[in-house]
Design goal:
Distance between the termini: 18 Å
Radius of gyration: 29 Å
Shape: elongated
Structural class: alpha/beta
CATH class of the largest domain: Alpha Beta
Strand content: 25-35%
Number of helices: 7
């Protein structure tokens, strides 16, 4: 059982890990991709690290990973989280790794799954449903996995600084951006805009895409000038959509979480949701303006750490307990006619590092140690060496 499981190893997770690098909590990080960092891997701008040194996104990733290498933090890449749930008041995460599907029980879960890129339907574009469209992250993930590109010549549709930053990164890995279609011109004085212009990118400002041209593949787009209402066709062999993202809390759909909006959930000052010890950070909480703004400072990290469930759930109980179901003969008179007794028990909640102890006349006659959640367990107690007639007291201890 882990103290903390963090789902997603992007910018917000890594900054939290840096602040928790000296923690005594056992932390497991599950990252679906083959490397950590999320959007930090694609960021073009420099970011200050904790020492005030200006680093690239990848340099910052290496800096943080190096700082936590001797900590209680374990990172599993290529591990896709499938479900978050609760079993007998214990939180768990089901995930698929290269070794199959696993379940990990934990005292705390931090959802750091980031955001979801908007779909073609949200762009209100007429299109053939058989056509293939891309988002910037789809291109990056394809490139990182296969070291090749699914398209070379493309048009990008989007109107944010994030769009322009990702366009610059796409050019760096070999994509030829024929044009960027934007519904406004408010960013025309930005550094990113001018960098793209210097690389030969044509901007269609105050335009929107009316429909995508093509039957079996993308051949181009039909534009509408929002000021003059004129139509124009641009030809290209692919289309990349770069729109506003929404927080990704899909994994938590089975949990009864109090929502703050249609897209996200309520959290308190320690980032805890309405479910005890279930936290949201980063873009899974709300969409941040930049990768740099995703990072948690030390004060925020301390608030999260302070809210962690820390107590060990050890039981020290004599006799029967509501948290454990026993199935066995209940009358001592019955025991006296048997050579052995089969005891069965089932844990109703997670019990950490406990021993099952049978005592007769206050003397220990059997002990079995457990260190994990069990299903129904069976213990056979041999009574042949015991003078059953002398039994005055029989008890079970869990400690």
């Amino acid at each position: 059982m882990k103290d903390v499981v963090i789902i997603g190893a992007g910018a917000s997770c890594l900054s939290l890990l840096y602040n928790l690098r000296k923690t005594t909590n056992s932390i497991l990080v599950l990252e679906k991709n083959s490397e950590v960092g999320g959007a930090l891997r694609y960021e073009g701008q420099k970011i200050f690290n904790h020492n005030g040194t200006l680093l690239s996104g990848r340099e910052l990733i290496d800096d943080i990973v190096s700082s936590i290498k001797d900590s209680n933090i374990e990172i599993e890449v290529n591990s896709l989280s499938l479900n978050v749930g609760e079993e007998d008041s214990i939180l768990y995460v089901d995930y698929m790794s290269l070794n199959g599907i696993k379940r990990v029980y934990t005292k705390n879960i931090i959802n750091a799954t980031g955001s979801i890129e908007s779909t073609i339907n949200q762009a209100f574009i007429k299109f053939n449903p058989n056509l293939q469209f891309y988002t910037p992250n789809m291109i990056f993930d394809f490139y990182n996995k296969f070291k090749t590109l699914p398209t070379l010549n493309t048009i990008i549709y989007g109107s944010s600084i994030d769009t322009y930053l990702k366009a610059l990164n796409l050019i760096e890995i070999g994509i030829n951006i024929k044009a960027i279609i934007t519904t406004s011109n408010i960013l025309k004085d930005s550094i990113e805009y001018n960098n793209l212009k210097s690389k030969g990118v044509i901007f269609y400002e105050n335009h929107k895409i009316n429909k995508v041209i093509g039957d079996k593949r993308v051949e181009g787009v039909e534009l509408i000038n929002l000021n003059e209402k004129k139509k124009e066709i641009i030809y290209s062999d692919s289309l990349i959509l770069s729109f506003a993202h929404t927080p990704n809390i899909n994994l938590l759909s089975s949990m009864d979480i109090k929502k703050s909006s249609v897209f996200s959930a309520y959290t308190d000052e320690s980032f805890m949701t309405s479910i005890d010890n279930l936290f949201l950070i980063g873009d899974s909480l709300y969409i941040h303006e930049s990768t740099d703004s995703l990072r948690l400072d030390s004060k925020e990290a301390k608030l999260i750490q302070k809210a962690f469930k820390k107590e060990k759930r050890n039981l020290v109980t004599i006799g029967l307990d509501s948290r454990i179901d026993f199935i066995f003969p209940r009358m001592i008179n019955t025991y006296k006619s048997l050579s052995n007794i089969t005891f069965k028990f089932k844990l109703n909640e997670y019990v950490e590092d406990f021993s099952l102890i049978f005592k007769i006349n206050k003397g220990e006659i059997y002990r079995k140690n457990y260190s994990k959640l069990s299903n129904i367990e069976e213990v056979i107690l041999d009574l042949r060496e015991i003078d059953m007639k002398s039994i005055k007291d029989f008890s079970i201890e869990i400690g």
